[in-house]
Amino acid sequence: MLKTNQRVTFQIREMADHGYGVAYIGKDRLYVKQALIGERGSAVITKKLKQGYVGEVVCLHLQDAHRVKSPCVHYQSCGSCHLLHCAYERQLSLKRDMVCGWLKQAHLQSICVRDVVGMEHPYAYRNKVIVGFYKDKKRKIQVGFYEEFSHRIIPYQHCLLHEEVMDEIVHKIVQLMAQFRIEPYEEDRRRGFLRHVLLRKGTVTEEIMVVLVCAGTVFPGRKSFVQALSKSFPQVKTIIQNVNTRKTSVVLGEQEQVLYGKGYIEDVLLGHRYRISSKSFYQINHQQCEVLYQKALSLLKLRGNERVLDAYCGIGTIGMSIAEKVGSVVGVESNQKAVNDAKENAQRNHVKNIRFVCDDASDFMRRAAKERQHFDVILMDPPRSGSTKEFMDACAMMKAKQIVYVSCDPRTQINDLTYFRSLGYCCDEMTLVDMFPNTMYVETVVMLQRRTM
After folding, report:
1. Which of 172, 212, 214 is nearest to 191 (CA)?
2. Alpha carbon distance 393, 414 (integer Å)
3. Any idea which architecture 128-269 has in CATH?
4. How many angstroms separate the Cα of 369 from the Cα of each of 194, 210, 239, 417?
5. pTM of the full predicted structure?
6. Gap between the Cα atoms of 360 and 332, Å rounded
7. How does pLDDT run across 284-339, given as a tens digit for each residue?
8. According to the CATH classification, is domain 7-64 in 2.40.50.140?
9. Catalytic residue annotation
């Protein structure tokens, strides 16, 4: 049995989905941070997990030809990126190889996996930023991201995945906290005021939303704080106070108050203008989102009179992108605020053949199938956990001819593809889009068609 602080030699056999290289020491699995397939070296074991051990490289005896020096000074301590030590083209091939391996394990290797669609400039793509705060030993306020596998915040000055203005706003907030004596929230002691800040930016409109996640409703110096922040950054179109009093890792609480602006920002995606609230789902990479949606819609064979279901629809982006090409669209989403945004978005874009329902997608589908409702096309973009058997069973009961399945977690999608196959649905190819460069995450899309008996 391995022990923490033990030094071992390793050879990386495969990659894990969180970016660690995987080696085998006897029967034990060792996850080596920032190691690539084929590399050999020695590592010190730092942590025991249920599925194995975590190790950090002490020295490398054999390096991968695609290894590069990370351009980020925070890379060794921050766990937000996985692959900054790997050349970008190799990152793309690693993701494809990983998905192909999962398909083979599921006996779905007959599905053709296309090369990953990457970015020309794989940095500064995030339109959503979340940071936390703490006071260092000198009682100075610091801002940063949580260290991997911990609740310790790693301070930072600039993140390569952020636009420069986002980091400038973050550091301005730190200055204002000191100026107005606003204490950062201490999780262990459950005291202090400001827990997190969430920023959202419209890529096309350049509008920015600031959400101040607070541990209480009483905001000292609120008016002056808001005035100073909005004056410093004209791009900030709304500032929201979100109240989260729970002991939880979930960032946002239920209670909100608009301190400045309308409480939302707007952005343009594939020619439509969307309203985005603090809790609405919106893809973090605008450029690649358009690539993904265009690919998803190109897979469909449409006559123009189809009845379409957009499941897990969020603020209605996919459904509205297809509405003008079909007869009607029904969007289903469990988040009421997202549904409100979706309805507003349909009105402002003059899309009259779409309606939205606030409901759990599986519950909606189960009832619709019992009522013998029919949809010709089903668009589905479920959460990371994937869909449900109830939802997929209902698809089969409706005898939907075409199902476009978009996923942010290929593993759960592959599980669902296996179940869909048992229901008579198959797909020939999978397209991968690099929505999250410099991480091991990848977005996938497939077309499922009902086999004719």
Report:
1. 214
2. 16
3. Beta Barrel (2.40)
4. 47, 42, 43, 20
5. 0.93
6. 7
7. 999 999 999 999 999 999 999 999 999 999 999 999 999 999 999 999 999 999 99
8. yes
9. 408
